[in-house]
Amino acid sequence: MNQKIIKILALIALLTAGGFACTKDGNTDDDKIVSIKIQNFRGEVDPNIVSFELPGIVNAICYNSLPYPNYVGLPETWGTNDWSIHLVMEKGTDRTKLAPVITLAPGATITPESGTVLDFTKNIEWILKTPDGSTVKYYMATVFVSGDTDEDNMVQIKIRSYSTGAFDPNIVSFALPGIVNATGYEFLPYPNYGGFPDAWSPHSWVIGPTMVKGIDCSKLSPIITLAPGARITEIHHFIGEQLFFKKVEYTGIVEVGEYDFTKQVSFVLIAPDGSTVNYYFLAHAIGDELEP
Predict the structure, then answer these.
(1) Fewer CB within 10 Å of terminal CB in the chain, N or C?
(2) Judging by beta carbons within 10 Å of its beta carbon (0-12, 13-18, 19+), is residue 248 exposed, middle or buried?
(3) Mind listing the pLDDT tens digit for each residue in 8-20?
(4) Residue-number span of the structural domain to which 56 is assigned
(5) What is the CATH number of the domain that holds 138?
(6) pLDDT tens digit string along 94-116?
(7) Is residue 280 domain-resident?
(8) Do residues 45 and 124 share a domain?
């Protein structure tokens, strides 16, 4: 893999890192209150919650219209209008005692009520009744504290296609301490798209994991859970400017070891149907500069 492709991967990781952030309305110096709008990656703002406020929000990522069962623990009964929210909080935040101030559209109601003290180390669900009487659910999927890398922050993320919204069926979860997002770009069979070789399979993924601020992406040790019958047979990675690879035979729950994810790390996976799928990872921590 040449340096041109590495730079393309870096650009994709940067776009992924910012593509899903909810909008910050501002903050005060005294209380560090940050107000966000609930907004998806298409730029569509939730009309029911005018603002969601907490002291010390660093970043927020929101998803809606996901009729997929068990996405990061979402109940199967969730509808396509419901929301999944991921927050990154400033270092030192006590996740066990957070009381968000939620400003609703006129006529809407929400349970738990605005200002309720909640333990954000646990999964939290709000039920909102819209002015027309319909129900929208909001699920606080993950809350990270910036700079924390302990096992309590080991979070499992499903790989989801940016273009189609579909989940990768071969990697059940990709887990790292402090991971915020792992949206992937699944290759379509376009020759020479972005300088990628013609021989690349349309079943290849470019994935840019976004990490909380302060994470050292040069020393990441992911835990990968594979679908039954799937196996990883090769790992390719850069050491300096040279690309190395090793043969492996990984199935089930895999601790692949520590790699430098600021450079390309790739896996060759054999799917249960015998097809080959390539995964190309390049991680980025919030706030870090990517080389142009």
Answers:
(1) C
(2) middle
(3) 444 333 333 333 4
(4) 31-145
(5) 2.60.40.2340
(6) 888 999 999 999 999 999 999 99
(7) yes
(8) yes
